[in-house]
């Protein structure tokens, strides 16, 4: 069957949560850049005291506004340290952080995004913007399951990749990623978010290639009507409108809005899958206004208490909740983002 391909291009919406009104006694207000007098003690009790003197930190995050603000409130109640949140999609967030870093004025003390590890490793580490986690002496870090800890980031929440499908167009739910090439779905249109828009999408296709081979992806691309959209939101709206039978890949949270609105959309979660992992990194000491508050905040995010609260607020899965993950869940492979051109070629997306 000849493949038909079309592209829907919609501008990506940027959402920014209004920052809290906070001040930093060491290093100035959030966004003012680091102070030359900033110090980062190695003793944890001294770190907490230094964090309280800083009094506030700025969190650059792709976590949705409501759960991000809920975590910020809980942290402030426990430590008396305010958290100003800047909410942007991962790619926009990392672009902003890099631009500030290159200008010598990093406003984000903590960075939490879907592409954080790739960014930290490929850009932030060499430039000295991001601190290696092992250098931070975080008391809760050793308790995080090993698969969710990397050199420059740790996962704070997971969204398993799944199929979302239009129930008016698809009568039988897929059960595994092998169904991408199931003959029963040969005439069904597949809707894809542009893989180049986020390292998380590249990580998904890298997972598919690792499980089934490059020829599997090539066969999928050659034998289906595939429509590529510039954003995940645009894909979901198209699926709800019946422009295609499947959105691949998808997450439960991204589909919840249209499902709650009554659209004929359902999800199917394969037992063997990977997921979007929101990874948290810390700006290196001396590079942002509140390095000690940042360490204390990230330590809170990596606690079972903080992780469970974030999962409850966001509807995603805590790294500590092994039972909540699909039976054969696999973390994304490090370095997958470096294969963007290769993955796009397999999918025949230019």
How does this model look, in words?
The chain contains eleven helices and eleven strands. With 350 residues, it is α/β, with parallel strands linked by helices. The strands form two sheets. It has a six-stranded mixed β-sheet, covered by helices on one side. The protein has a five-stranded mixed β-sheet with strand order 3-2-4-11-5, with helices on both faces. Strand 2, helix 2 and strand 3 form a beta-alpha-beta unit. Helix 5 (199-212) crosses helix 6 (214-222). The two termini are 20 Å apart. Residues 1-33 have low confidence and may be disordered.
| Helix-strand pattern | EHEHEHEHEEEHHEHEHEEHHH
Roughly how many Å apart are the termini? 20 Å
* Main beta sheet strand tally, sense and closure: 6 strands, mixed
As a percent range, the share of helical residues equals: 25-40%
Global shape: elongated
What is Rg?
Answer: 21 Å
Overall pLDDT? 87
Q: What is the number of helices?
A: 11
| Poorly predicted runs | 1-33
Number of beta strands: 11
Structural class: alpha/beta
Oligomer: single chain
Strand content: 15-25%
Topology:
Blueprint: E1 5-8, H1 44-54, E2 56-61, H2 65-79, E3 82-87, H3 90-102, E4 110-113, H4 116-127, E5 154-160, E6 162-166, E7 190-193, H5 199-212, H6 214-222, E8 226-229, H7 232-240, E9 246-250, H8 252-260, E10 265-268, E11 275-282, H9 291-301, H10 304-314, H11 340-346
Parallel strand pairs: 1-8, 2-3, 2-4, 7-8, 7-9
Antiparallel strand pairs: 4-11, 5-11, 6-9, 6-10
Helix pairs in contact: 1-9, 2-10, 5-6, 7-8
């Amino acid at each position: 069957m000849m493949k038909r391909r079309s592209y829907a291009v919609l501008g990506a919406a940027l959402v920014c949560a209004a920052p809290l009104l906070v001040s930093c006694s060491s290093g100035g207000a959030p966004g003012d850049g680091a102070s030359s007098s900033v110090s980062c003690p190695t003793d944890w009790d001294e770190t907490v005291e230094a964090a309280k003197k800083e009094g506030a930190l700025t969190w650059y995050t792709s976590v949705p506004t409501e759960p991000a603000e809920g975590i910020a409130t809980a942290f402030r109640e426990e430590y008396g340290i305010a958290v100003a949140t800047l909410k942007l999609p991962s790619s926009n967030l990392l672009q902003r952080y890099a631009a500030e870093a290159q200008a010598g004025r990093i406003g984000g003390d903590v960075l939490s995004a879907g592409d954080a590890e790739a960014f930290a490793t490929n850009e932030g580490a060499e430039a000295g913007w991001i601190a290696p986690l092992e250098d931070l002496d975080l008391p809760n870090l050793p308790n995080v399951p090993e698969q969710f800890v990397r050199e420059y980031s740790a996962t704070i929440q997971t969204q398993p990749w799944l199929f979302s499908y239009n129930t008016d167009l698809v009568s039988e739910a897929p059960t595994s990623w092998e169904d991408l090439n199931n003959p029963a779905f040969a005439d069904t249109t597949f809707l894809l978010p542009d893989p180049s828009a986020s390292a998380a999408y590249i990580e998904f296709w890298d997972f598919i290639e690792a499980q089934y081979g490059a020829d599997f992806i090539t066969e999928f691309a050659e034998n289906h009507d595939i429509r590529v959209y510039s954003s995940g939101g645009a894909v979901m709206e198209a699926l709800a409108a019946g422009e295609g039978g499947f959105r691949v890949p998808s997450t439960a949270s991204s589909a919840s809005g249209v499902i709650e609105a009554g659209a004929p959309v359902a999800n199917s979660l394969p037992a063997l899958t990977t997921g979007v992992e929101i990874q948290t990194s810390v700006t290196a000491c001396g590079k942002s206004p509140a390095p000690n508050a940042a360490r204390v905040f990230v330590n809170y995010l990596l606690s079972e208490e903080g992780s469970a609260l974030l999962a409850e607020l966001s509807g995603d899965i805590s790294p500590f909740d092994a039972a909540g993950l699909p039976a054969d869940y696999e973390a994304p492979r490090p370095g997958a983002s470096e294969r963007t051109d290769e993955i796009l070629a397999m999918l025949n997306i230019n």
